[in-house]
Amino acid sequence: MNLSAKDLPELQSELSEQLGQVEELLLESVQGSGDLVDPLTSHLAKAGGKRMRPLLVALCGTLGPNPEPEKLVQAATAVELTHLATLYHDDVMDDAPSRRGVNSAHIEWDNNRAILAGDVLFARASRLVAALGAEAVDFHAKTFERLCLGQLNETFGPQGGEDRVEFYLQVLADKTGSLVAAAASFGALYSGASDEVREAVALYGDRVGVAFQIADDILDLVSSAEVSGKTPGTDLREGVDTLPVLLLRRQAAEGKGDAEVARILDALAGDLSADEDLAQVVSAITNHPVMAQTRQLARDWVDKAIDALAPVPDGEAKDALVLFANSMIDRVA
């Protein structure tokens, strides 16, 4: 997740230095357990990633009058370690073959080791948070609880007459928005910002997280394998209903779907193991108006995130947060 020096002329050097320190502490934190364990626990960290959450900690760390650089680095690293831990677990639950252009940990080492590696990373995140004090420990625990409940609720699915699209958006908020909100909140806390500003950026982060995941749903369909590291439509093949599909199902349930919607849903119910069959369904969805509707929903969530920044004083830091939010959907424009 890059914001250029042109976008942030005064913040860029400060952010670069802090993010470099986060990267050093992150790579140190995913190692240190010996030759058998280190390759596993460092697998995804070394594979890359956007480092969106550490960047948000750094940005919000400029909002207050008394930034604490060491605590900002520790908090940013802890949030990223927590995120990494969830990726190990998610890939096991989803039986995902790859992540960040490399084989998933459970493919390389098996399910048990991948799960335990995620546990180790969460333990190391917890140790970093413990050094920040009781308030940070409580906040981090509540964030992780919400994240896990979001994942758990997803396994149960919507109940009774619950709207599937609204349920899905709430799952995105709980699974992704919660940790993005934590990143923003930690940054504001260790900048000395007011409680009002901290609450504002937490709400902002929650909404940015939803927009980010909606954009990911779009990218699953439109990104090439070279860019995303996975075959377009991988979620469809795995039977995962992402937002475009849920919107199509809603149209059909409300009697608003046309023949093309029916054809797409029929295809999704079939066997998509062949690349040609998958490519046909992906093409049908990407050429359907539902993609414009999905992009608009991502835009709406970004706009709501920016609206949440109203209590934040005007300045370069706030401008940077607006740019950060817009970057969530610039990649699918």
Automatic annotation (TrEMBL):
<keyword id="KW-0479">Metal-binding</keyword>
<dbReference type="InterPro" id="IPR000092">
    <property type="entry name" value="Polyprenyl_synt"/>
</dbReference>
<dbReference type="GO" id="GO:0046872">
    <property type="term" value="F:metal ion binding"/>
</dbReference>
<protein>
    <submittedName>
        <fullName>Geranylgeranyl pyrophosphate synthase</fullName>
    </submittedName>
</protein>
<keyword id="KW-0460">Magnesium</keyword>
<keyword id="KW-0808">Transferase</keyword>
<dbReference type="InterPro" id="IPR033749">
    <property type="entry name" value="Polyprenyl_synt_CS"/>
</dbReference>
<dbReference type="InterPro" id="IPR008949">
    <property type="entry name" value="Isoprenoid_synthase_dom_sf"/>
</dbReference>
<dbReference type="Pfam" id="PF00348">
    <property type="entry name" value="polyprenyl_synt"/>
</dbReference>
<comment type="similarity">
    <text>Belongs to the FPP/GGPP synthase family.</text>
</comment>
<dbReference type="GO" id="GO:0004659">
    <property type="term" value="F:prenyltransferase activity"/>
</dbReference>
<dbReference type="GO" id="GO:0008299">
    <property type="term" value="P:isoprenoid biosynthetic process"/>
</dbReference>
